[in-house]
Amino acid sequence: MSIYYAICDALPFEMLHWNFMKNALLAIIILAPLLGLVSTMIVTGKMSFFSDALGHSAFTGIAIGAICGITAPTWIAVIFSVIFALLFSFVRSRSNHTADTLIGVFSSSAVALGIFIATLDGGSFTKYNKYLIGDILSVTPFEIGMLFIVFLVVFVFWVIASNRLTLCAVHPQLASSRGISVKITQTAFTVTIAVIVTLAISWVGLLILNSLLVLPGALSRNMAKNLKQYHLYSILAAMLSGILGLWISYQLGTSTGAAISLNLAILFAVSFLFRKAR
After folding, report:
1. Which of 36, 105, 147, 220 is the most exposed place for a label (fewest CB within 10 A)?
2. pTM (2 d.p.)
3. How many Cβ atoms sit within 10 Å of the Cβ of residue 192?
């Protein structure tokens, strides 16, 4: 981190004179590619509402961890979200209900359980507001290190399984006929989303996290002509919006997550107009 801090100090940007801004920038540089990659498959697999449901389950995990007196409830939330994702995959594979119906069931149940636990014995809900809005300026070097490990694991997983993930999302029957285990592939992806969503919720905020998981892939789909461009544009859009959003939030004193989301929304509008024009 000392080398990174020295590089930031050498740059002519006032906001990088503060260590918390340096940490926030590094977290965005690591988190943005994760969101960009995952977003493409969320959009392709029509799983946008599922990622939102995972955010609700993450909040429930945080509430459970806080009630149990755990100082770092985020890791309890990771475990709870992974269990939630596995349970959803299990029920989905054995139910004749559509995916959106099951997502509605799981999402509403998760948020209701979270609020119920958070307000037990008349407890105040205000201490959980930071998870609704998020604060990436609070990220610590230790959390950045853990995020980087997650990034490496997801990157390796993506290199190995991206083609299979795409085929399972677009045509699961064809994927199965080619010997690909659709259930295992989809379950692995849902667990990946669960981990990323849970880690990001305290920095980005539950209220806008889903937009960061959908907009990069959605705007990239407007412009991309092939799968490689699809992934690349999504990552670049997430990275550009993240860095610009951090700068805007510093200048105007606004929520960083909200600024990033608005940047992505503007890029989506531009990409939509570009798609219509061509």
Report:
1. 105
2. 0.80
3. 23
pLDDT digits (tens, 9 = 90+) for 207-252: 777 788 889 989 998 888 888 888 899 999 999 999 999 999 888 9
First to last CA, the chain: 45
The SS3 of residue 82 is helix
Q: Name the residue type at position 231.
A: H
Residues in the chain: 278
- The alpha carbon torsion through 250, 251, 254, 259 (nearest 10 deg) reads -80
Backbone angles phi, psi at 194, to 5 degrees: -60, -45
Distance CA 136, CA 29 (A): 12
Which residues lie below 8 Å from residue 242, measured CB to CB, with a gap of 6+? 28, 29, 31, 32, 260
Whole-number Å distance between alpha carbons of 273 and 257: 25
Question: How far apart are the C-alpha atoms of 102 and 61, rounded to whole Å?
Answer: 20
The amino acid present at 15, given as its one-letter code, is M
Gap between the Cα atoms of 277 and 185, Å rounded: 37
Amino acid at 181: S
253: left (phi over 0), alpha (psi -120 to 50) or beta: left
Structure tokens at 122: 């008349």
Residue 156 burial (CB count, 10 A): 10
pLDDT in tens, 160-195: 877 787 787 777 777 778 777 777 877 788 788 878
Write down the residue that tokens 């995959």 correspond to: 89
Picking from 64, 59, 14, the residue whose alpha carbon sits closest to that of residue 210 is 59
